[in-house]
Amino acid sequence: MKKSKLFLVSLTSIITVLLLSGCENNMVVFNPEGPIARQILELINFSIALLLLVTVVVFGLFAFIVWKYRERKDNLDYEPPEEHGSTALEIIWTVIPILIIVALTIPTVKTIYAIDEIPKGYEDKKPLVINVTSADWKWIFSYPEQGIETVNYVNIPEDRPIDFKLTSAGTMQSFWVPALGGQKYSMAHAETQLYLVADNPGSFVGRNTNFNGQGYAGMEFEVLSQTQEDFDQWIKDVKETAPKMTLEEYEKMLEPSHFGRKTFSNSHLEWVDHSDPHSKNYTNPELYDRGHGWPGKIFEDKNNYKYKNTDSNNSETMNQKDSEAEDPNGGGHSGH
Amino acid sequence: MGIKWDEFFVTGDPLIFASQIGIALSLVGAIAGITYFKKWNYLWTEWLTTVDHKKIGIMYILLGVVMFFRGGVDGLMMKSQTAVPENEFLNAQHYNEVFTTHGVIMILFVAMPLLIGLMNFAVPLQIGARDVAFPQLNALSFWLTASAAALFNLSFIIGGSPDAGWTSYFPLAGKEFSPGIGNNFYAVALQIAGAGTLMTGINFIVTVLKMRTKGMTLMKMPMFTWTSFITSIIIVASFPIFTVALALMTFDRTFGAHFFTISGGGMDMLWANLFWLWGHPEVYIVVLPAFGMLSDIISTFARKTLFGYKSMVVSIVLISVLSMLVWVHHFFTMGNNAAVNSFFSITTMAIAIPTGVKVFNWLFTMRKGRIKFTTSMLWALAFVPNFVIGGVTGVMLAMAAADYQYHNTLFLVAHFHYVLIPGVVFPIFAGLYYWWPKMFGYMLNEKIGKWHFWLFVIGFNVTFMPMFFLGLDGAVRRAYTYSAETGFGPLMLLSAVGSIILAAGFAALVYNIYWSARHADRNIGNDPWDARTLEWATASPVQQYNFASLPEVTKLDAFWHMKKNNELQPLSEDEVEEIHLPSNTWIPIYMGAVFGISGFLLVFEWTIAAGIAALGIFVGLAFRSFDYDEGFHVHKDEISETERKWRKGGNKGVKNHVS
Amino acid sequence: MSAKVNAALPLEYQTEQNRMNILGFWIFLGAEIVLFATLFGVYGVLSERHAGGPGQSDLFIVKDVLIQTFLLLTSSFTMGISIFEMRRSNKKGMLMWLVFTLLLGGGFLFMEIREFINYVHEGATMQTSAFLSSFFVLLGTHGLHVTIGIGWAILLIIQMLQRGLTPVTARKTFIFGLYWHFLDVVWIFIFTFVYLRGLVM
């Protein structure tokens, strides 16, 4: 019994160590492609080393005690002593965790402050501002200085800090490019901000990590890091060749749906900035079809983009069945 | 109101259709069975109207085990869906519903009822009391919980399940993005369950403060009583926040208010804050009683008193205070400024300090002991290494900067399963094996128990260990599918295999309950484990009135010292006095039913009907107000007879069967 | 459960069960404090979010609020006298002051409902803005408590008439008194943080 117990314990720790050392080369968090991800990884590595030490000590102590003081056939008449504690020991194992926590706290706080800023060594480079707008279930990237817009992919110049300004047209999403750095939420009527830098040209996966309904699993985008020349060329090409987006097209785009990449030579920021607390709402409740179940009431929103009626005192509720009649194919996701 | 029956019942899914038929058949079967065996009267008088804390505890445990099955099936469905890339077993909508109900059920209808059930059963016995402070309120707590569980579980066959995750973040959970009524089930059912839990909290605070037997000062209470007490305080301090949050959710969804909506000036971040202001303390509400059970069980089977009792008490008090100060760590990535994130990083990591103290105290309780490897003790032992993994990964997640890379990934999912399964489920199993003889008068089979243990522990590790690595490789939680190029396939498959082993472990428990009920030895005496606390001074199963004469306590581990010092005198006739007990009452189950019906109507947004049904609540309250039932007395002869029976039987011929 | 009676204590504290009930109710009031604190917090966060709808100064009428405050504060005072009479075993006086309390509470409720109806007529409903949602829910929760309190007290008066002043009825009335004073305290906070702050800003 105890042998197998011990076996299990050592097995678990061995597997942990093996997997940590063996897989390290493959796991994206352990392969940073930019200074911010690298800073975070340093913190992670430090914590793993320290905590692995803690784990090994506790496991060792546990195994030793359980093995040594197990009941055996020859110690059945052993009666354990009355022992209520030991102030010295209890102080020791209060102080040691405090020291460990302090050791972890200092680099943590430093890194928290560091990743809020442009990383060291890049201060003199002017950050490229990209406005990210998340919607169900796509990512919209606007380049305000360049006046272009991409959907579900974003091209960035290498070695230059990118100042992502995040907002959402609807549900709450989380913008994450693990190879380049951490994640941050995007929320309607609010703006959050995240710096990322890529060391080299390359393609990285980015995605939403905050669950937001049926299309969540597919809500990915590509980050393509290019040399400054390639990037400038790409901007130029987009401006020359990409179509202009119309307001109707944009409104259609914000309906719940999935599609591939899109590129435009203008930006939706000319009509609406979703981070503005007073901007119009682009919600389409009647298009979220769950495919079964009892439909509930939905409520009229006088600040909705569809609301053309100026009679703002009318607060009667709209029934879903009525609105379904307008759009029998509701739920553009079903075809996906 | 014209009901469209095809929308009323969830249709179009073969799995759900099969469950609908299954549920209908088992209902009919149960009713027919009870009628055939003429058990309605027994059921009504002995169980449904009871106010006895032991029976209420057992009903809580039954509810918890049944819900464990439901939540486990949800978990298995999730694991089968993600076992291979681009699987089509469940679609996105169905997967979303399944992980939502899995989370809600496992926390609120498995962990809570099982722990509150064990609290109900053991705490009054441990403090030498005859019942809790408010027995009727206790029954009401249970029936509200049961009614909420029934309502919540109804969702997948009637009306549609909630599908916004157990956290139900707004704006997703609002009508703007979830127009069906699924999330109303969440808001209403949890409201009812929360009311029941709040009453339990109040009840146990008063019970522990006022009903301890003579000589049992606070610092002589068994550790499980201590943790139940602290948990009750956290319940009272945090559940009202959830009550408010759910009420506001209901107003948003049913009446078009603007608390968390993106329209009308609502604020989605407010929901996240309110939810976790309750949600984080909730983690400690379930973990602390489990810690208490471990303390009592480890101490019993190491045959040593708990090491560092005082520092244990200080630790749980510290944990309970810190639990209120860490909620922001659930959303470090919400764009808080660096100072806020730093503060909550530090408070969160600080929880590791009292927790570490507890782990070392447990280890040193065993040092110089004589450790008996009963199934119960195995669960307690398995807790230590597994929970340490959960704890250290918790510290990793607490480092806000690093959390930017872990947040919402499977790393996080693995972490909280490594906290909640070893930290809550293992101790619950330990407690079930430990107190089972006290509850039913027979023990759970040790051999099957060991199958249960090994299958469950190995299955658990195989299921959740791979998720740490998947998370670090960029796999996110709650995604119903992933592409083959991600390379997640092999570890996902391994994890799915683990979940099958885990399920086999649970099946072993169910089989053990069945086998032991049929075949286990009934002649086990009152103290089969040679235990240390007062509950073992009663008969097995415990007599209706718990203690013929209330014991007097001078030391910690009172029963142990009574045994050692031969203070356990046979009961003399003149000591026996009439015992006053509260009468059964129909009001709690009636209230449960009214809350359930009214809640159901509210879920369907038939507000006028719900309001009319809710009048029934006030009728029940009025009946209770006019109820001057004084209870009844157990006669001396009956007590003497009962006591003679078990005390005689307890002394000879008892098999001491601990392997 | 214990039927032991300690006659040295005030009537409502004489049995162990009574003492437990009173302690339990204090703890319940602790939970109520958390509940109202949360609602105040929500109101604090949302009170400036008018979404183009009416704001505090457009709605609040000082005179009506002062009348409401006066009614509820006085009712708390009469409740106190009622418990005082109960301690003196003066059942008649106790009931009389309790009835006064209820009338004042009823008056408060009437004013509050009238206020709400006025707002709704002005187009300020719960659906208008986050500010109004939080306003109506905070005040509505308090108003609901007052309503339940009135119903509760009526039941107590009936029991008092049926059974006279016993430890049990005394305890019930005492607990009701705690509840009523608590609602008064909550109202003081509402008056300060909702009305006064709203009118000043």
Automatic annotation (TrEMBL), chain A:
Biased segments, Polar residues type: 306-320
PROSITE patterns: COX2_CUA, COX2_TM, PROKAR_LIPOPROTEIN
Recorded topology in the membrane: Multi-pass membrane protein
Reactions catalysed according to its record: 2 a quinol + O2 = 2 a quinone + 2 H2O
Basic and acidic residues composition-biased segments: 287-304
Pfam families to which the protein is assigned, alphabetical: COX2_TM
Highest taxon of the lineage: Bacteria
Gene Ontology cellular component annotations, sorted alphabetically: plasma membrane
EC assignment: 1.10.3.-
Listed NCBIfam families: CoxB, QOXA
Record's protein name: Quinol oxidase subunit 2
The organism of origin for this protein: Mesobacillus subterraneus
Automatic annotation (TrEMBL), chain B:
Similarity comment: Belongs to the heme-copper respiratory oxidase family.
Needed cofactors: ferriheme a; Cu cation
Keyword Hydrolase: no
Species in which this protein is naturally found: Mesobacillus subterraneus
Top-level EC class as recorded in UniProt: oxidoreductase
Protein name: Quinol oxidase subunit 1
Keywords: Cell membrane, Copper, Electron transport, Heme, Hydrogen ion transport, Ion transport, Iron, Membrane, Metal-binding, Oxidoreductase, Respiratory chain, Translocase, Transmembrane, Transmembrane helix, Transport
Family annotation (InterPro entries): Cyt_c_oxase-like_su1_dom (IPR023616), Cyt_c_oxase-like_su1_sf (IPR036927), Cyt_C_Oxase_1 (IPR000883), Cyt_c_Oxase_su1_BS (IPR023615), QoxB (IPR014233)
TM stretches of this protein: 15-37, 58-78, 98-125, 137-158, 185-209, 229-251, 313-332, 338-357, 378-402, 414-436, 448-471, 491-514, 590-623
Principal subcellular localisation of the protein: membrane
Recorded superkingdom: Bacteria
From TrEMBL, chain C:
Domain of life according to the entry: Bacteria
Function, as annotated: Catalyzes quinol oxidation with the concomitant reduction of oxygen to water.
Cell compartments where the protein resides: Cell membrane
InterPro entries the UniProt entry points to: Cyt_c/ubiquinol_Oxase_su3, Cyt_c_oxidase-like_su3, Cyt_c_oxidase_su3-like_sf, Cyt_c_oxidase_su3_a-hlx, QoxC, Ubiquinol_oxase_su3_dom
PROSITE patterns in UniProt: COX3 (PS50253)
Signal peptide (from-to): none
Protein name, UniProt field: Quinol oxidase subunit 3
Group of enzyme by EC: oxidoreductase
One BP annotation, GO: aerobic electron transport chain
Catalysed reactions, as listed in the record: 2 a quinol + O2 = 2 a quinone + 2 H2O
Record keyword Oxidoreductase present: yes
Species name: Mesobacillus subterraneus
Gene3D superfamilies: Cytochrome c oxidase, subunit III, four-helix bundle
The entry's keywords: Cell membrane, Membrane, Oxidoreductase, Transmembrane, Transmembrane helix
Transmembrane stretches, start-end: 21-45, 65-83, 95-111, 131-158, 178-196
